[in-house]
Design a protein that fits this description.
6 strands; alpha+beta; four-stranded antiparallel β-sheet; 2 helices; Chromatin assembly complex, subunit 3
Amino acid sequence: MEVSLTSSKMFIGGLSWQTTQEGLREYFSQFGEVKECLVMRDPLTKRSRGFGFVTFMDQAGVDKVLAQSRHELDSKTGD
């Protein structure tokens, strides 16, 4: 899983095909209040494209995510 950010919005790459918006929100809520969560999907097949975005209410959530060296979501581990 790859993580990059702009302000309090983070790009989350390398997601499992099974990851849902709800699952993404649930996982990242442990780091702070999530304002918006989105898993990008193919418009025709509706299948996950393997990446998404998480926007926190404030920068503290982003800092907590970045402070943890490894993340595991839906059996997929990332740095």
